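Margin note from the TA: students keep mixing up input and output lines. Inputs are the sequences; the output is the structure of the whole complex. Example:
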Amino acid sequence: MNLVYSVGESRSKIREIQANIKNGVMSELVNKASNESIYMLSAKMLESILQGLSIKNIVEYDEKLKIYTVFNGIVPHFYGEGSTKEIAESNMVDEAIMFSKDYLENVEMFSGIFSGIQQFLISIIILNIDDRHRIMEILKIA
Amino acid sequence: MPDTVTQGQFRKFFAKHHFITKGKKKNRYIGLINGAARVVTFHYHSDKKTIASGTLSAIARQLGMTKQELIDMIKER
């Protein structure tokens, strides 16, 4: 049976979902045609998941070329080069921003290629795309 | 002496595997490696330029392999 809601009922349902999320209850929206679920969670839950995520950056130095490369362990597409570790890290942040924008533009093609944890990290970057300082915090760059 | 790979060698490797470019700056490449779809970020400058060792590691991870496996594939060993 298909459930059909009026505009008023839809607003009421959304308010109910928002209230549940605010109170720490995750909501599930099921697409009955595809049987896929979408989950909605609070900012507090999101922040906790992010805190629990083991985000590490790998630093490698090429002695011959005298170039540092820093790349993210979860999404290695976030990488930067530089003559110092700090420059390479800064370039990695630029790359993370550019890559996340490209991801959003090509999301239907890219999304199936990346794992859930990679999608999560890219999404967090997209949500903070205009806040470079926050992105540096997320990527564990001091 | 460690294995080195030039950007030209890498560009040919991408062409061989039919990778196509995506993204505003055309520095995202999408294609199939070992039956799996992959997206790779590669900043091409010139054929003669050597790719830094760490950058090769990052690209290898994007392709789901180790750096040595990637070097062996590029050099057809």
